[in-house]
Design goal:
Length: 403
């Protein structure tokens, strides 16, 4: 009997570091013939990776799986126009390739980690070929568009609402990475559409790595790791840390690991205000991150206060939890509730500088017993709610339900 064929549609794929890489491998191990439709790798640098050429169309392979790649727009880190052009380029080129190759696949899985435009190549395969399509939604439209500063003008609202309805209409079912997303998706779908909460899981952490030395002298280390954009609210985090009384500031160090469009602005903020004990480490390979986590006393997750982000549970939270380290959650909504309900660390409102400063102080004053309790709670949650094998298998079962 021939293996069932799954086509994954995603803007990002290996060598870019996203969870879709793991999904593809696990489904292949289960005996499915998996292929991937994506674009040339550019994230997060804004340029094509070494070893790749930015061709209009190219067929590649990954662990024996066929990878269909289309041209990607580069130089988008500092240019909103190029960023938008990148999204629309994949929508059009990906749709052309999808319609050409899509008939031979039995199932279609869309990894919606960015703009919903990237899912058009997937949903067209249901519209024209009646293929079962499952989307895993990581970023809810149109809310995210407005959260990034676009004004709610009538024509934009109408266009976005119509576009979102179109995409969701031609899906068989939808998985969401945050429970709060369900109520935001429901108005755009009919009542019979399955919407299921399937969270992200933790990155695989190399537990054989020895902790790195983050400072020459003994300090309480706070570490933020990940994309550095305006929505991460790090300007407020840095400001609050710098306001610590000297007796606490002397005991602490704030580590920023990662890259992004707001990095240079943060470095300038530190330089102009002469902030102390803040270190920028740059971007580090994902497979080396555990040595930074294990050298840290608290790990930081932060997002600005916008309605959509109150429903968002950043994927890094699961990774922080798997690292078994206490968390400072400078965030509102569902993510803060996870930290509070499961006693994983301390929380503060992202717009309350004084609250952020206070949780830094609470963390610095925390006892070893208190920190160990946070760590034990993290371990328990990883084994249960954020179990990678269970989530990937549930995703597959939801996709298979459609036939």
């Amino acid at each position: 009997m021939n293996a069932k064929k799954i086509l994954i549609v995603t803007e990002n794929f290996y060598p870019e570091e996203f969870k879709i890489n793991e999904i593809a491998i696990e489904w292949q191990k289960k005996g499915y013939e998996v292929a991937i439709l994506t674009q040339e790798p550019t994230y997060p640098f804004g340029k094509v990776y070494d070893g790749y050429k930015n061709r209009w169309y190219f067929e590649d392979s990954y662990h024996g799986m066929k990878v269909y790649r289309v041209k990607a727009v580069t130089g988008y880190k500092e240019s909103l126009f190029k960023k938008l052009l990148k999204y629309f380029t994949f929508m059009f080129l990906g749709s052309f390739v999808a319609l050409k190759i899509g008939k031979k696949y039995d199932y279609v899985f869309g990894f919606d980690v960015g703009p919903l435009t990237g899912m058009v190549p997937a949903v067209l395969l249901q519209k024209f070929y009646n293929k079962p399509v499952l989307l895993w939604v990581q970023d809810v439209w149109p809310d995210t568009v407005y959260a990034y500063g676009f004004k709610k003008r009538r024509i934009l609202v109408k266009m976005l609402d119509a576009f979102v309805r179109f995409v969701y209409k031609y899906t068989s079912s939808i998985a969401v990475s945050g429970e709060g997303f369900i109520k935001r998706v429901k108005p755009y779908v009919n009542n019979n559409k399955i919407i299921k909460y399937l969270p992200n899981w933790a990155d695989d952490l190399d537990e054989t790595l020895a902790p790195i030395s983050l400072s020459n002298d003994e300090k309480i280390h706070f570490t933020f790791a990940g994309n550095i954009g305006k929505v991460q609210n790090l300007d407020n985090v840095l400001k609050a840390f710098s306001m610590l009384p000297k007796e606490y500031l002397d005991k602490a160090q704030l580590n920023i690991i990662g890259d992004g469009s707001f990095l240079e602005a943060l470095k300038q903020q530190v330089s102009e205000n002469n902030y102390k004990n803040i270190v920028f480490w740059g971007r580090k390979p994902r497979n080396e991150m555990n040595k930074y986590f294990q050298a840290s006393d608290f790990l930081i997750v932060s997002l600005i206060d916008k309605p959509i982000f109150s429903l968002t549970v950043p994927a890094k939270i699961q990774t922080y939890i798997a690292a078994k380290k206490p968390i400072l959650a400078i965030i509102c909504g569902d993510a803060a509730e996870i930290i509070e309900k499961n006693r994983l660390g301390f929380t503060a409102k992202p717009y309350e500088i004084s609250q952020i400063k206070d949780i830094f102080i609470k963390a610095i004053k925390a006892t070893e017993d208190g920190k160990q309790e946070f760590s034990r709670n993290c371990e328990s949650l990883t084994e249960n709610e954020f179990n990678k094998d269970r989530i990937i298998n549930d995703m597959l079962m939801l996709l298979m339900e459609e036939r």
